[in-house]
Amino acid sequence: MTSLCERDCIGTGMWYNTRMKKRFSRIQIVRVLVQAMVLGIMTFAGFNTKHISDWLFPTVLLVGVFFCGWVCPLGAAQDWVAALGRWLRLPRLRVPAGLQRYMQLLRYVFYALLLMEISISLLKGPYHFSRLVHGELLTAASGVIVLFLLLGLFMDRPFCNYFCTGGARQGLFSVLRIFGIRRDTERCGGCGRCSARCPMNIDVAATDFVRHPNCIGCMTCLSTCPKKCISYGLFRSARKSESGR
Ligand code: SF4
Ligand code: SF4
Ligand code: SF4
Fold first, then answer.
1. Is the CB of 183 under 6 A from ligand 3?
2. How far is residue 5's CA from residue 30's CA, in Å, rounded to a whole number?
3. Prediction pTM value
4. How large is the average pLDDT for residues 28-47?
5. How much distance in Å is there from the Cα of 206 to the middle of ligand 3?
């Protein structure tokens, strides 16, 4: 289903002026370059995603889940197929807000099941546990990655939104972060473009500070706001009217 707002905001790209286009391009081009660079380093230097995610994990408490928006190759692949889908003008699917409220919990349910499985495995013995930590689950999941990438032609980040336990783990800790996306409610025109364009289906237009655990720090909302009233910074340094909520 393509929402009216999304068709209007994103379909032709006519809504933003040249200045906005430059702003959008600058941040998002840098993001694509970083994603491509990481993919190259991982391919040629043999780093693995889990290691990088573990190294960056402490930063989640400070700046949120930048790993997902800027580093993770699977996240990048979904962004790129989504861009291809838009370029091909394929219909965009978006889970209705009422259903999204429940669907977004799915990955946390999977994460809880994974933790339970790990606990049971620990009780069963080191052999079972070592099979788990050596990525047996990941190997099984990789078989369906192609399906998710095909789905990604029509909707934003389906795997990240509903299935990824790694994203869920980081997201849970990210609610403690002190830096994040802020919306200036006084300058906001209420157009809803930020919400329509968020790949993680967060209703940015309805919040002052994005503390949502699904936020991946991709800056798409910031890039697409025609009024430039979305910024990234210290939560407590935002306007008094914002911190009042
Ligand atoms: S949610 Fe999972 S697949 Fe998506 S970017 Fe984050 S770690 Fe990668
Ligand atoms: S709220 Fe903004 S930064 Fe966070 S995921 Fe959505 S578009 Fe990206
Ligand atoms: S923050 Fe910007 S994009 Fe979002 S509703 Fe307000 S004016 Fe529109």
1. yes
2. 27
3. 0.80
4. 87
5. 9
